[in-house]
Amino acid sequence: MNAAQNLDALALTALLHFYADSGVEWLVEEEPVDRFAQFAAQKAAQAEARMPASARQQQPAQQSESTRPREAAPSDGGSPARNRTAPAPSAPPANVAVPDGEAVAAARFAAESARSLPELKTALEAFNGCNLKNGARSTVFASGNPAFGIMVIGPMPNADDDRDGIPFSGRQGQLLDRMLGAIGLSREAVLLTNIIPWRPPGNRMPSDAELDICRPFLERQVALAEPRLMLLLGNFPARFFLGAGTIHSLRGQWRDISVAGINSSAIATLHPQELLAAPANKALAWQDLLAFKSRISSH
Predict the structure, then answer these.
(1) 3-state secondary structure of 68
(2) Model's pTM, two decimal places?
(3) Residue 239 has pLDDT above 70, yes or no
(4) Three-state SS across 121-166?
(5) CA 46 to chain centre
(6) Measured between alpha carbons, how far is 120 from 220 in angstroms, rounded to an integer?
(7) 71 pLDDT more than 60
(8) CA 256/CA 258 separation, integer angstroms
(9) Can you give the pLDDT at residue 44?
C-alpha cells in the first residue's frame, strides 16, 4: 500500500475524490478524538444557550446542591422511612420526543409568526420539535436573493450541506452553479432551499411525520419569497409539489401550482447528484434548463 507522502499532487487529488465519493467525511488524525464526547458537549452547550438567563443563574446552585454528599443511612435499625434521604428526582432528558400532532402545530405557529425570511430562519433554528435536528450538525436554511422571483428547491441537506450550513455545497453545489451559469443565472440571482432543513441520518428519506413537521417552514418560505418560477430538483421535490410519479415522468413539464396562497409556475428536473451518478442524463437536464431559461425571458 502506497503511503500518502509518496504520491504526487495528481494522485493525491484523485485519492481524495475517491474518498469523498465513497462517503468518507473524516480523516484519521494523529491522536484519537472522542467524537461522541464532542457531540454531547456541543449539544449541552446548545441546550444551555437556549435556556433563559434566570435559569442559567440558578443552575450552579442546583449543581452544588446535587453534588452535596447524602447522609448515610443509620445502622441502628431505625425506621428507613424516617432516616433515609429521599432520592433526588432525575432530570428530564435533554431531547424530549414531542407528539407528532403537537409538533406540527408548534411548527405552524412558529412559521406563521415570522414576518420575513431572517425571522423565519431564527424561528427554525430555535425550533426543537423535529427529531431530525437532534442528529444534524446544522440547520440548513435558504440562501440567495428572493427579489428576482426564482426559487430552486432540492430535497434535503447532504453531508456537505450539513457541514457548511448552506444548501447545495460540495460537488453537487459546484455542478448546480454550472447548470445555473449555463442559462445566465447564479446563486445570487435565485433563492436556494431544501424541503427538509436538517440532514436525516444516513441520508435516509424523511418519514411522513417528519415531513409534516417541516412542511409549515417550507410553505412559509414560499409565502415570504413569493416566487413566480420554481425549479424542482429531483424525485422528492417533484412529488412534493406535483404529485405522484417519478422524476422521469414529471420532469420537463410546466405546472401552475399554488403554495401558501402564492401562485407559481414550476418545472422539475434531475438533481445534480443524480447527474453525477449518471452523466448520460445531463442531456435531459439541459432540455429542462433551456425550457426554464425560455420561461424566464417571457416573464
Answers:
(1) coil
(2) 0.67
(3) yes
(4) HHHHHHCCCCCHHHHCCCCCCCEECHHHCEEEEECCCCHHHHHHCC
(5) 17
(6) 8
(7) no
(8) 7
(9) 80
Instruction: State which H helix or E strand residue 262 sits in.
Output: strand 262-269
Taking 3-state DSSP, the helix, strand and coil percentages for the chain, each rounded to the nearest 5, stand at 55, 10, 35
The total of other beta-carbon atoms located within 10 Å of residue 291's CB is: 17
- Using one digit for the tens of pLDDT, what is the confidence trace for 185-230? 999 999 999 999 999 998 899 999 999 999 999 999 999 999 999 9
User: Number of H helices and number of E strands within the chain?
Assistant: 14, 6
What pLDDT is stored for residue 28 in this prediction? 59
What gap in Å lies between CA 204 and CA 155, rounded to an integer?
A: 11
CATH of domain 100-298: 3.40.470.10
DSSP string, 272-291: HHHHHH-GGGHHHHHHHHHH
For residue 36, give the amino acid letter. F
Q: Which amino acid is at 91?
A: A
Rounded Cα gap, residues 46 and 44, in angstroms: 5
Residue partners of 255: CB distance under 8 A and separation at least 6? 241, 242, 265, 266, 267
Cell readout for 38 is 464532542
Residue 121's alpha-carbon distances to 124, 125, 157, 198, 203, in angstroms, are 5, 6, 16, 13, 22
pLDDT tens, position by position, 22-67: 555 555 555 676 767 777 787 787 777 766 665 555 555 555 444 4
Strands 229-233 and 150-154, by their bridges, are parallel
Give the pLDDT of residue 90. 43
Contact 197, 139 (CB under 8 A): yes
Residue 184 is given by DSSP the state: T
Is the four-CA dihedral 159, 149, 247, 196 of positive or negative sign?
positive
Please state the φ and ψ torsions of residue 13, each to the nearest 5 degrees. -60, -45
Phi, psi (degrees; rounded to nearest 5) at 225: -80, -30
Closest CA to 162 of 151, 172, 150: 172
Residue found by looking up cell 441520508 in the block:
203
